[in-house]
Design brief:
The protein is mainly α and about 160 residues long. The chain is built from 7 helices and 3 strands. The protein has 2 domains: about 35 residues; about 120 residues, Winged helix-like DNA-binding domain superfamily/Winged helix DNA-binding domain (Arc Repressor Mutant, subunit A, Orthogonal Bundle), CATH 1.10.10.10.
């Protein structure tokens, strides 16, 4: 592991660039979703439903890593605005299946199309080699960040395991 002032400075500059990119992307996404009456969380629910087709509220809670109560509130709002509907489970009377309505399907198709187009805009001129390199670096960063978050160390402060 490299520990010198130049490397530390480059690490810090890289993190600041990554923070700028995530801030810009998040702000752009929030604006686009707000124009459609969606929040990032509600759009995430639609995205999951678009990938899965139909899921129970409990499965959705597990996928989103939230409580079933949170899912109920999200689904209430999405149902109220016409993006999803609840249906009875065919074999489990206690379970409720969540499905996209035609409006929800259209919203998911639009999001998927926009993601593809945005990817082309951002990376269309980047070589396949450089894209693979970037993907590998981002994967490694994601893995490291996930580990740090689980350890409670993502804020940069030392944890007991780091101090000991």
């Amino acid at each position: 592991m490299i520990h010198n002032d130049l490397h530390t400075s480059q690490c810090r500059d890289t993190l600041l660039q990554l923070l700028l990119v995530t801030t810009l992307m998040s702000a752009d996404m929030q604006r686009g979703l707000a124009d459609r009456g969606l929040t990032q969380t509600r759009a995430h629910v639609l995205w999951v439903l678009g990938e899965a087709g139909r899921v129970t509220q409990r499965e959705l809670a597990t996928e989103l890593k939230v409580t079933p109560r949170n899912v109920t509130t999200l689904i209430d709002a999405l149902e109220e605005t016409g993006f999803v509907r609840r249906t009875a489970h065919s074999t489990d009377r206690r379970a409720v299946i969540i499905v996209l309505t035609p409006k929800g399907q259209k919203a998911v198709a639009r999001m998927q199309s926009e993601v593809t187009e945005f990817a082309r805009l951002l990376f269309g001129t980047v070589s396949e080699h450089d894209l693979k390199t970037l993907q590998g670096i981002l994967h490694d960063i994601g893995t490291k960040l996930t580990k740090l978050v689980k350890e409670g160390a993502a804020d940069g402060r030392p944890t007991k395991s780091k101090v000991q």
